[in-house]
Write a structure and sequence with these properties.
The structure holds two protein chains of two kinds. Chain A is built from 14 helices and no strands. Chain A is mainly alpha-helical. The longest helix of chain A is centred in the first third of the chain and has 28 residues. Chain B has a seven-stranded mixed sheet, covered by helices on one side. A six-stranded mixed sheet of chain B has the order 14-13-12-24-25-26, with helices on one face. In chain B, strands 5, 6, 9, 10 and 11 form a five-stranded antiparallel sheet that branches. Chain B contains six helices and 26 strands. The chains are: A mainly alpha, B alpha+beta.
Chain lengths: 305, 405
Amino acid sequence: MPGPASNQNSRLWRAMIWALRITVALQCLGTWGWFTVWQETPFLHWLLDPEDIGGLHWSEPTSLAVQQTIGWLILLAGLFTLARPCAAVLGPVAVVQLLIAVAMWRVDYGFSLESDWLSPRTTALFPFVSHLARIAAPLGLLMLDPWRAERPLSDDRVALAIGGLRWAAAITFFAHGIEAWLLHPEFVDICISSSENILGIRMAQSTAEVLLRIIGGVDMLVAIACIGTRWRAVLWWMACWGGITAVSRVAAYGLNVGWSAVLTRAPHFGIPLAVVLYWHLLEWTRANPIAKSKIDTDNNPVKEG
Amino acid sequence: MLLFSSWNLGFTVQVWADAKLEGTNPAQWRLIWHKDPATSAVLSWNTAEEGQQHRVHLRAEGANQDTVVDAARNGKYSAKSPSLYYHHARLEDLKPDTKYHVEIESDGSRSPPMYFRTAPSEDVPISVVFGADSRSGWEERREVNKMLAQLVADSYESDKTPILAFAHGGDFVVSGTRLDQWSRWMSDHELTTGADGRLLPIIPARGNHDFGKLFNQIFDFPPEDTNYYSVNLGPQVRLVTLNTETSVAGEQLNWIKKELAESRPNYRWLFVQYHRPAFPAVKNPWTNLNYWVPLFEEFDVDLVCEGDGHAIKRTPPIRDHQVDPTGVVYVGEGGLGVGQRTPKEGRWYLEEPHGKVGKGHHLQVLTFGPEDLTYRVVLLGGEEFDEHKLLARPPKTAAKPNDVH
């Protein structure tokens, strides 16, 4: 059976690549806003904090200058991503996203998981889980849309990239499901504020908490289904829900405050979208063996992500 | 028991510190106010071993006999390491403005003799120290605590207004689930005990780094408590402690509205403390800007103490996002040891001459008099950075809270 590599000129393949390119570009724009406009980031705190509590203890002017420089470089990287993704651009983007998670781990920033079964040192690693999609998006794009690489890409490479993206989206969804299930106070307030701003209805905290339990439960189930099944509806749901939850920051805080928070979360909807487009491509390939055979040049078995 | 010496203010101070955590030796004591400070207090301590009998020997000044108060709540901290046990003795039915001598006893091991004073029931001038952010800069934190003990001792000189309590605006430690960090903080907190054994009551607010169950275990809040509450520091002074780390827009908002509506007509001075700032000197405004600030303005709160920024700030009175003599003044930002940031002095509410910002480890002393409130910032080393007076607002009749919508 011919492999999906044969369809790397199809519209669905191009749609998937552009979904990822736009995702990473939006992520870069959001990170630029966070680093240069808002400035207060876990990364900055990591640079500033003293060594005895996990920081690097750099001076404030140096820390701010480093962060500003990275912010502008990442904006540039976002523009390059739209024009021509390559390792020199996407590699640093992934490293910056990884460093944000490292910073959150080192200075205990963001949602704090507390568990009776896991030590505080272990639960402090939670940002690597909750931020996995943000780290994976540029890496996935790098594997699927490399510059100057021989085309078509091998099935192994495509399968590895799609599989990685799928796992990253699922793990991130699961992590956010845990946060919702544990009634992250910021999520409670996002529910209340969004309801008030969009519907004009003041939601009681108890209602928001019931809603979050449901959302958290669904998120975790969807994450499991994403890995355990090949239902495309699951990925479409993840793409839509990832978009809604990202945009809820604007609904709750307003556009001027929430825009960068929305954009940094672009991988939450962009990755499921890219994966589901690829699955549609596989389905189309199976349904159109004649069209496929015209351009197929090898007999690799199908590798599915 | 070790004795430390400090020369921060130009003269020698001796303070109790670092009681050994071994066996059932009482250590890491703290006196907590979160109910009625005129008639109650919680005296808490830790032991390294569980022990059997934990109690406080209590004697009012002038009385002949001790009263023994058993610890009402004992337990092992939920964190696995280090292995520590907490004990909380709830001292009730105390007399206002009275000196109480206390000795803590766990299985026969006794603390040194100490004492504390309850809040007054008469309308007399009082002072409170506000500070926040002690999560890092541990050496500086110890120095600030020593300075605090000295400030309190000085305040009891005849011509001064006594400092009754220490309002901590949060971020005690970096990781709220790490008992090793809390243990270190609690040992350092012993340094606020005066050389003569005077205990300084603490009124704690939860900061964004103080997440997890340990906070409630350390400060004797119920396990699921959300840590917003009010205390009277005198018949005319009310402190409202809020929690920026739970829902800002939910039940807490309803509680604030009711609390402020009921308190405003009954107290000359109504002030608030919490961690994340609505009018920050360094960082970005927290969501309380949209939800709490309108209530502070509606009910004419006198002063709001904020932390988190790692700087020093005092805003002009603010109402409707502009300078207004009838508005609310925001102070604080935190400097109990944590490294200091550069405040963004170009923000409209920080610009001179109406506002004032700076940096440096510090304490903020609030003195509540019959006609005015004096705010002073004392830097580590004793230098005064800022002093400002607020006049008491005209008395207001009771207001019925509108529904929050």
